[in-house]
Amino acid sequence: MKDYFFQDTIGKPMDRVDGRVKVTGAAKYSAEIELPNMAHGVLVGSTIAKGRIKNIDTKAAERAPGVLAVLHYQNAPKVPGYVQAAHPTEPKPIGQPHRVFYDDKVYFNDQPIALVLADTLERAHYAAKLVKASYEEEKHTTNFAKNTDKAILPTAAKRNPRHGLNDYVRGKEDAYKNEPLKIESEYVIPSEMHNPMELQAIVAHWEADDKLTVYDKTQAVIGTQNAFAREWKIPVENVKVIATYVGGAFGNGLHTWPHETAAIIGAKKLGRPVKLMLTREQMFTMVGYRPHAWQKVGMSATPDGKITAITHEAIGQTSSYEEFTESTLQQTRMMYTSPNVTTRYRILPLDISTPIWMRGPGEATGAFALESALDEMAHVLKIDPLEFRLKNYTERDPEKNLPWSTKFLKEAMLMGAEKIGWSNRPMQPGTLRDGEWQVGYGMGVGTFGAHRGRATVKATLYPDGKVVMQCATTDIGPGTGTAMVQIAADNLGVAPEQITFELGSSLFPPSPSQGGSATVASVGSAVRAASIALKQKLASMATGNADSGFRGAKFEDLTFQNGQVSLNNSPGTKLTYSDILKQQGLPELEVTEESKPGEERQKYSLYSYSVHFAEVKVHPLTGQARVTKMVSCADAGKIVNMKTAGNQMIGGAVGGIGMALTEGAVMDVRFGRYVTKDFAEYHVPVHADTPPVDVIFVDKPDFISTPMGTKGIGEIATIGVAPAIANAIFNATGKRVRELPITPDKLI
Amino acid sequence: MNQFQYVRPTKNKAAIDTVTKDPNATFIAGGTNLLDLMKRGVVMPEKLVDINKLPLRKIEKESGAVRIGALALNGVVAEDKLVLEKHPLLAQALDAGASAQLRNMATVGGNMMQRTRCPYFYDTALPCNKREPGTGCSAIEGYNRMHAIFGFSDKCIATHPSDMGVALAALDATVLVSGPKGDRKIPFVDFHRLPGDTPQIETNLQKGELIVAVDVPENNFAKHAHYLKVRDRASYAFALVSVAAALDIENNTIKDARLAMGGVAHKPWRLTEAEKALVGKPVSEHTFRQAAEVAMRGARAFEHNQYKLKLAPNSIVQALKTAAGLA
Amino acid sequence: MAFEKDCPHALPESSDHKPPHEARRMFLKQSSILTAFALTPGVAVKAADLKFEEKVAAAFEQVKVTLEINGKKHKLSLEPRTTLLDLLRERLQLTGTKKGCDYGQCGACTVHVDGQRVNSCLTLAVMQDGKKVTTIEGLADGDNLHPMQEAFIKHDGFQCGYCTPGQIMSAVACIREGHADSDEEIREYMSGNICRCGAYPNIVNAIKEVKNGGLKV
């Protein structure tokens, strides 16, 4: 059979299918669902980091007008699925999310300790201010820097010696130490908050005692459904999760959080739907973050620029009740040809809330250290950093000892260098000026596994030629629906205007969570499978019909295009899909197809790659740093939609600008409480911080990755951006800043 | 927000009377800071006296000054022809503040009355002498990166966040006030207070007193004025340090100078000694550096704002260079 | 005292979108102590907080407000503490205007009041009495999108879409104000609208196209 998927639509910069609803304000996000008799919930947070609640005084709140209930650990309806460790002396199980209102224990500052339910939002907010708790405070540990000696190997690694989080040694351990030409540097990133524009929100509605519907901000419709079914010990099919529009998430929708369960508890108690939207402050404490991390890189090289050894160590913080881990050191293991590589990953449990993957998760953290160190090494060697990277380029995965499925990073590097004007980069830092401003150029490489999961898509063709496809994936912003329509259009031979892709409901066939840059790979492959299955059904109907000219024709003999099937060798012999359905008297034609990654993938190493180039200007007197130009290049396989994919790359670059220059959550470790917890204190980039971003795609398909040839984009868009900017600042000023963000105080 | 009563008088006197008589009443104009504080439970007035119907919006020439009504919007003042012509420094400072939306809401009087951005002031769970006198200052030994290097006390090290105020301090502005005891004028530099033992009292306004206008006197600084704001991102952020610099230059010699800083003290910080150090001197980076050194006398930093000891003088030099046309 | 609107404690009225409880209304109709309370409204607020007499107190919480929103007149009874944003989203179901921070720090709630862009989260609905409010729902001309909406689609000026209504309302104002003459000026005057997805360059391109197209905004 002939594949038609690059035919008309895939690769085109098609407008978003949900553009109109988004620009008119018609798209309804979770908190915008209106149900009859809905109550409003507002959470009250603890004001200590560790200890026990001695007393919780809710009288004033309960007396306030409009208040329906104030729930806390003493009076909240019990969640049947909350289970305790088998015996109090046994260690807590790994990966236990915080159990809201479970007992009097406080594990982190601003932990939800009460839920105020009222008839209006204003009344709920006010009454929440009236709830007062007293505590038996215990000594908390929240100072990361002072406790790095308490970092531990993750339990998952301890239990399984083959686990990827274990220490890794290729060649000789810590070989750089004995080499003459080496660097050794420590790097720190602060905790960074996802801070999507939409505040985390849920509407919880018990439609019956054992039937729950939630309109919830999540990246995992099915995961959330399963989690709540477990919590409430009700059948999975009794839980309905709706997330039609998600106002950004960047990873914090990959976990279920205490506020969600709190709203469900509230709805249970009241017997009415409850809407709960977090405040911006609560977004810093209740829905995860990119963990504060310390890293150390030692690197050695030969005088002519061959890396001889790398050692990369990392410590990331986690909570006391849940071990959060990420792949901080992965890029170090596979990106460069070094014969000796050592990595050690540790986590540091603190009395704070649990982190969660934030865009380009651990890899972005790791790449900041690795790609900065590379720049430092190149400087020591007096070699151009681009040349240095090319000298240590790998044509085979040195970690897994497998061939790459595809790798066009070198091409991306060369295209990007040309576009940014890399030849303008001075070898000697601090020598290029534009008026008063110091000018510099830097680069950083990023990589992320080209993942693919198992997904199922239902496709229905109607006699009017329209097609509806459904899958329980979400669209947090990349344009999932749009990409799926394009894949369906080309694989089905139907114009995109005729196709609707429905997502964001647990009533639809299952999909993995929207994380790890895998949605197009997983769901897109299922869309393609469903399209093909639909065509096969159409073919068998057409060829099975004695009256038609198709009789006896094989599937391979047919062309599917423009909503009609025709014979390859007799294009005049054709039938529209509508006609086929009408001939059969079918009101609709439906298929449901699952698609999953195949064995072929085991024979290769699969990654997406990016390389980012930054031009910066730094004012030497005031320390202000501006990114004046960015070029972001991706080797991410075949690009389905140049417009939305380009936008995603731009967004990753902007996220990287924030990581490099402006973002960092500061905790006052005396209280274990954040002091930067709104947009005035935690600075995400604004328009004025953002230069034009040139995006370049290599756009070469990787058919090992998916049948469409795609690889993921979301993570690599931001991985490597922060070091590109830090390296550019070094080039501009001669100042090497190893602790992010690089604010003006660090550059004067 | 707590419940409160809301009234909207149309006469100054009615507004003043209401706030004078009711201990828990307060004026609201733009509301851009007050409502923010009320949402967080930092302040909980029982009565809001909306003054937006009062006739206090005019911008006009008045006895050798530009008189700006207290309710003139920040965005309107920043683009007013008279202001742009006579006091471009003020327009620049206003444009450097907040966002276009907030400037469309915030008034000149409200800008003066805005509270500090010290994070401890905003978090009702933590001690703060300004919010709850006697509870202690969390910033002194805490996260004090944004805090004062001049004029602080052992009770409070917060800074005043206004940009507009820095320009008004430099430009010898006068605040016109109307109150239960009649009208009076307060030099802008005396309008705000240093924290001392009473950081909760931020201005010298008496209970019930209403700002009606601010006068900015004529000067010769329009040609050489610059407002420099250094912040953690390129726009829409409070100042780490800001400088209002205005020079009267003749034959490359500084005839007169005005200089004030923001982000360094509990009030917009006028630098009169540094101004004196500039007068009579030739326009040069050397002159500016010397003045900056004078300006920094008496500065003292805390754990996280040490950088201001360098950033502040650097910013003074840069602002003066730009004002003088050297940058 | 000469107050223009010196009655901050008007009765709830039936045109109210979410009428207060019937019990309250009945009580108020019958109550003869209303006048007494009207003279000393401070008592009512305190009574509400202490729930001494919630039925009385609740009545005093309401203020009459008339607003023209997207060309439609709304007569409302509101608690004075209701922000314009919460009125739009929670009472009138005009959820196109978004809550991103509630502190005037993100711009997602941007609407036009009498043609000027403002943050609807930082103003009380009662303060806008008698004014004309335009939200994203009122920008298009029926089924015909506003040129800025068209340009946002064409230039892909958004991803998740949550900041988009605020960006568009702000962008329209940015051109009307005359602050869209260069990329740099657009960036500065749009900096009050945060887009965490980072679609900024595309937004700038959309604004430029509308500005250069010379279409009426």
TrEMBL record, chain A:
<keyword id="KW-0560">Oxidoreductase</keyword>
<dbReference type="InterPro" id="IPR036856">
    <property type="entry name" value="Ald_Oxase/Xan_DH_a/b_sf"/>
</dbReference>
<dbReference type="Pfam" id="PF01315">
    <property type="entry name" value="Ald_Xan_dh_C"/>
</dbReference>
<feature type="domain" description="Aldehyde oxidase/xanthine dehydrogenase a/b hammerhead">
    <location>
        <begin position="24"/>
        <end position="139"/>
    </location>
</feature>
<protein>
    <submittedName>
        <fullName>Xanthine dehydrogenase family protein molybdopterin-binding subunit</fullName>
    </submittedName>
</protein>
<dbReference type="Pfam" id="PF02738">
    <property type="entry name" value="MoCoBD_1"/>
</dbReference>
<dbReference type="Pfam" id="PF20256">
    <property type="entry name" value="MoCoBD_2"/>
</dbReference>
<dbReference type="InterPro" id="IPR037165">
    <property type="entry name" value="AldOxase/xan_DH_Mopterin-bd_sf"/>
</dbReference>
<dbReference type="InterPro" id="IPR008274">
    <property type="entry name" value="AldOxase/xan_DH_MoCoBD1"/>
</dbReference>
<dbReference type="InterPro" id="IPR046867">
    <property type="entry name" value="AldOxase/xan_DH_MoCoBD2"/>
</dbReference>
<keyword id="KW-0500">Molybdenum</keyword>
<dbReference type="InterPro" id="IPR016208">
    <property type="entry name" value="Ald_Oxase/xanthine_DH-like"/>
</dbReference>
<dbReference type="InterPro" id="IPR000674">
    <property type="entry name" value="Ald_Oxase/Xan_DH_a/b"/>
</dbReference>
TrEMBL record, chain B:
<dbReference type="Pfam" id="PF00941">
    <property type="entry name" value="FAD_binding_5"/>
</dbReference>
<dbReference type="InterPro" id="IPR036683">
    <property type="entry name" value="CO_DH_flav_C_dom_sf"/>
</dbReference>
<keyword id="KW-0274">FAD</keyword>
<dbReference type="InterPro" id="IPR016169">
    <property type="entry name" value="FAD-bd_PCMH_sub2"/>
</dbReference>
<dbReference type="InterPro" id="IPR016167">
    <property type="entry name" value="FAD-bd_PCMH_sub1"/>
</dbReference>
<dbReference type="InterPro" id="IPR002346">
    <property type="entry name" value="Mopterin_DH_FAD-bd"/>
</dbReference>
<feature type="domain" description="FAD-binding PCMH-type">
    <location>
        <begin position="1"/>
        <end position="221"/>
    </location>
</feature>
<dbReference type="Pfam" id="PF03450">
    <property type="entry name" value="CO_deh_flav_C"/>
</dbReference>
<dbReference type="InterPro" id="IPR016166">
    <property type="entry name" value="FAD-bd_PCMH"/>
</dbReference>
<dbReference type="InterPro" id="IPR051312">
    <property type="entry name" value="Diverse_Substr_Oxidored"/>
</dbReference>
<protein>
    <submittedName>
        <fullName>FAD binding domain-containing protein</fullName>
    </submittedName>
</protein>
<dbReference type="InterPro" id="IPR036318">
    <property type="entry name" value="FAD-bd_PCMH-like_sf"/>
</dbReference>
<dbReference type="InterPro" id="IPR005107">
    <property type="entry name" value="CO_DH_flav_C"/>
</dbReference>
<keyword id="KW-0285">Flavoprotein</keyword>
